[in-house]
Amino acid sequence: MPRGHNYYRFDRLSKKFLAADKPSRISARSRPRPGRPTRAQAEQRHAQLLERALDVFLEHGYELATIDEIIDSIGMHKNTVYSLYADKKALFRATVARAIERWKQPVEALKAAETDDLETTLIAIAQLLMANSSSPVALKLQRIIIAESFRAPEITQMFWEQGARANADYVADLFMRHARRGGIRVDQPELVAHGFLTLTVGLMTRMILVGTKIDQREIDKRIKLYVKIYLDGIRAQRQGA
Predict the structure, then answer these.
(1) What tens digit of pLDDT does each residue of 135-148 get?
(2) What is the pLDDT of residue 35?
């Protein structure tokens, strides 16, 4: 068979092969590039960055902490960090915001602890909030806020607006609902709620922050006592009115 005919046949087969292979080439281009992390992996690395940043900011303080130390310890490239955050201050704010998100107690969990008896409800709520406030991430968060609030006062506002406020508003509403039933008298529910949270949760949390050892049995004992004292005070107002 003439050579030209063989060449012509080979050329036709080549084109047919290339045409058949074309869709697989397009599909290959649509797949993630080798080595590129998935969205889940990227989110995991981002969380790791913020977790490590929390420890470094806590250990050295904002002024002495460096992005290099944070990323070197987790093997992350500096360009990756700066694609997410413009500078150290932005990373610091994001670190605090994530810690608040991990720390805050969902209001739904507090509502689930409600019973018809106010004293039983307040004990359960205080126990939930105390366990939450004494968790490792909560203690780290509070130590950073105490240490850095003079330099970055906005983080105290973040702590209140994004976390603590919802709990205080819920407790205030709880007191108002029971006051309408006539069991207690509450003229300023917001202040009453803040005072209750300070006595039952804030006091022991501050003790733990400075190194005081309080076991769970002692925590429960104090909460029951503080709730009783607080309710007796509110009921005394009603009786004396």
Answers:
(1) 998 999 999 999 99
(2) 60
**CATH number of the structural domain 106-240:** 1.10.357.10
Q: Half-sphere exposure of residue 141, counting CA atoms within 13 Å on the CB side?
A: 29
Q: How is the chain split into domains, by residue range?
A: 39-102, 106-240
| Residue type at 125 in one-letter notation | I
Mean pLDDT of the chain: 84
The type of residue at 202 is: G
Q: What distance in Å separates the CA atoms of residue 182 and residue 9, rounded to the nearest whole number?
A: 98
Phi-psi map region of 76: left, alpha, beta (phi>0 left; psi -120 to 50 alpha): beta
Of the pLDDT bands very low, low, confident and very high (cuts 50, 70, 90), residue 104 is confident
CA distances from residue 184 to 115, 176, 233, 237 in whole angstroms, order as listed: 16, 9, 9, 8
List the beta strands (DSSP E) in 76-222: none
Region for 17 from its dihedrals, namely left if φ exceeds 0, alpha if ψ lies in -120 to 50, beta otherwise: alpha
pLDDT tens-place string over residues 36-54: 778 888 888 999 999 999 9
Q: Does position 34 have pLDDT exceeding 90, yes or no?
A: no
d(CA 57, CA 148): 9
Question: Does the domain made of 39-102 have the CATH classification 1.10.275.10?
Answer: no
Amino acid at 127: Q
Residue 16 to residue 19: CA distance in whole angstroms: 5
Q: How far is CA 116 from the centre of its chain?
A: 31
pLDDT > 90? residue 182: no
Average pLDDT on 189-197 reads: 95
Name every residue whose Cβ is closer than 8 Å to that of residue 237 and which is 6 or more positions away in sequence.
184, 185
